[in-house]
């Protein structure tokens, strides 16, 4: 018998929650805390995205839509939202600096490769790179962050080298968890866009998957996928930076939009009888 849409959605939610719950339990987040977060998001979405046009969204209507009591809607709505602004800023500024080093011709050598930079001083210094792509944040703080994550290497007291062509925090777990929230939300938003039938176009949503590979094949595919993905992302990054008003202030046009492409690698061991 064919499953109903609600049954399929319930199964999808369970599959999404399993790895998320693993992360929550590992980090000491209880069910009660998770439930309050879930309730607050139910209320936020119901209030802001399911209102009747021309009418102010009421507590009673939010209660009806979400299934929560009016008392619970008021209680949860009064909770202070979690603050992660500082973590987001740290991640964004580090990523911007690495991207600028990789594509700004002022910081590239004659072969188009990221130059060795003096830490401070001239117009081709790391200090200038940070000023250009991270605003008024102290350049030594950014250097310490990138050096700590293995993105840059200090060759001597006054020279640094870019090691990683993309910024990925290695030891800062809070920043990795921030990425979890941002990237997962973007992926689900894309899938939601494609599920809905009221859009004139679908967003790119592709994957390639095989489920009977030997262990010995994995290291080579990890290397292949990492290299090819980085090359593709850098191509997109170059195009997008040329269209973005932050990097090209002279760009004209209407509206303000965010767009991009995300690539992720996955693998898991399967038993002989297991099907994913």
Structure report:
With 276 residues, this protein is mostly helical. It folds into three domains: 1-82; 85-162; 206-247 and 260-276, no CATH class. Helices cover 52% and strands 4% of the residues. It has nine helices and three strands; from the N terminus they run αααααβααββαα. The protein has a three-stranded antiparallel sheet. The chain is globular. The model has no long low-confidence stretch (mean pLDDT 87).
Jot down its keywords.
single chain; 276 residues; mainly alpha; 9 helices; globular
Question: Which helices and strands appear, and what pairs or packs with what?
Answer:
Blueprint: H1 5-26, H2 31-49, H3 59-66, H4 70-77, H5 85-103, E1 117-118, H6 126-134, H7 139-148, E2 152-156, E3 159-162, H8 173-195, H9 218-243
Antiparallel strand pairs: 1-3, 2-3
Helix pairs in contact: 2-3, 3-4, 5-6, 6-7
Short description:
The protein has 276 residues and is mainly α. The protein has helices at 5-26, 31-49, 59-66, 70-77, 85-103, 126-134, 139-148, 173-195, 218-243, and strands spanning 117-118, 152-156, 159-162.
